[in-house]
Write a structure and sequence with these properties.
With 132 residues, this protein is α/β, with parallel strands linked by helices. The chain has four helices and five strands. A five-stranded parallel β-sheet has the order 2-1-3-4-5, with helices on both faces. The longest helix has 14 residues.
């Protein structure tokens, strides 16, 4: 089964997001990130349509104050309002970061992206979606 995944991340986590997106695509997922927006398309409309179309949102939780962190917080809030499955990932090793997740996301099980190689992290995400 092909899963449509919206990958939400802040600029500081772009490198991890790019590798993770590639790994999930290799496992058969249809992954949307902002780099897939075609020239000439309206950014806001493309994001909204991708969120509406997604089966799940993989959310790389940004550290507070990072570049574009508000955009990632907004995307995950919109996904929650749309009733989308959200898979939060903490890209850095810090158990206290769970408190930094937006309200309503804190109760979800977050994957520790600092302890898994991107291959293993992508496999965990796709396995989670397969199990749903």
């Amino acid at each position: 089964m092909t899963h449509k995944v919206f990958l939400s991340y802040a600029h500081d986590d772009r490198d991890l997001a790019k590798v993770l997106g590639e790994k999930m695509r290799a496992l058969g997922a249809d992954v949307f990130d902002d780099e897939t927006i075609l020239p000439g398309n309206t950014w806001q409309i493309s994001l909204r349509e991708a969120l509406e179309d997604a089966d799940a949102v993989v959310y790389l939780a940004p550290r507070p104050g990072t570049t574009e962190s508000n955009t990632a917080f907004f995307e995950v809030g919109a996904a929650r309002a749309l009733g989308k499955r959200i898979i939060p990932i903490l890209p850095t090793q810090d158990a206290m970061r769970i408190r930094e997740l937006p309200a309503g996301i804190q109760t979800l099980q977050a994957l520790d992206g600092s302890r898994l190689a991107p291959d293993a992290l992508a496999e965990s995400i796709v396995a989670t979606l397969d199990a749903a």
